[in-house]
Amino acid sequence: SVMSIVAEHDGFMTASSTQGLGSEFKIFLPVETGELLKEDIPPLAPGAILTVDDDRTNQRIYRATFRNDNSFGVHSGNAAVQAVKENPGKIKVILMDMNMPGFTMEESLRELRELDPSLRIHIITGDTTLKSTPGADSVVHKPINMAVISELVK
């Protein structure tokens, strides 16, 4: 529902109604300004899986699927680059949403490839017209099929 989407993004709604005039609904969402905050990234063991998605529901799905201490989720391309810098050679697979705050997908891919060309990076998107993108190993379309995702991280 609209209400759950707004709440998931730390927003709120108001509603008012006047008989004979109609109803008015207002949605308030926080605005991000300035630099993204640095995320607290734990040390990872070799072979780690990094998920990059600003949607909290998707992050919960990934956590439930990869029930081990060797996976971690971040909420922006900037944080993905930070995670790779802080864990050199340890991350083997990145599952990255196409649209996020901070770096664009293209900027994120370029930075990540410069840091570690051996990374396996898979883009997750709702854009069914996107078949491939430079710098990514594959494009996976939403809705997320966890059987497909599980194969990608093997």
Written account of the structure:
By secondary structure, the protein is α/β, with parallel strands linked by helices. Helix content is 29%, strand content 26%. It has 5 helices and 7 strands, in the order αβββαβαβαββα. The protein has helices spanning 2-8, 56-65, 77-86, 105-115, 146-152, and strands at 12-18, 22-28, 48-52, 71-74, 91-97, 120-125, 138-141. Strands 4-3-5-6-7 form a 5-stranded parallel β-sheet, with helices on both faces. It has a two-stranded antiparallel ribbon with strand order 1-2. Helix 4 (105-115) links the parallel strand 5 (91-97) and strand 6 (120-125). Helix 3 runs parallel beside helix 4 (105-115). The radius of gyration is 18 Å and the shape is elongated. The model has no long low-confidence stretch (mean pLDDT 84).
List keywords for this structure.
7 strands, 154 residues, 5 helices, 26% strand, two-stranded antiparallel sheet, elongated, alpha/beta, 5-stranded parallel β-sheet
Structural class: alpha/beta
Major sheet, described briefly? 5 strands, parallel
**Which percent band covers the strand fraction?**
25-35%
CA radius of gyration: 18 Å
